[in-house]
Specification:
It is a single chain. The chain has about 110 residues and is α+β, with helices and mostly antiparallel strands. The protein has one domain: Alpha-Beta Plaits (2-Layer Sandwich), CATH 3.30.70.120. It contains 3 helices and 5 strands; from the N terminus they run βαβββαβα. Strands 1, 2, 3, 4 and 5 form a 5-stranded antiparallel β-sheet that branches.
Length: about 110
Amino acid sequence: MTTDVLLVLTTLPDGDIAARVARTLVEARHAACVNIGPAIRSVYAWQGAVEEADEVPLAIKTTRAAWPALERALRALHPYELPEIIALPVTHGLPAYLQWVGDMTDSS
């Protein structure tokens, strides 16, 4: 079974920003649901150095049709110079849930 649902991953610097971004994406119907995870520690290469930062992960449920607007909104809301924004296709899932994701997102 293939679907038009995407799982979008990103990280933000703190819980307040994560909550604001999540609420904005859902209110604008760019996403049906956003899960805000507990703080994580990220280790990454940036501008020639190895950096570490505490971050808050988001798991965003959206559709392929809503992706362009979600990406634009997330880039505008995100405080990082180069944010992690990764969209993964959902290939299987509970049909009623996948339908709900489609119903709750706006493709315009």
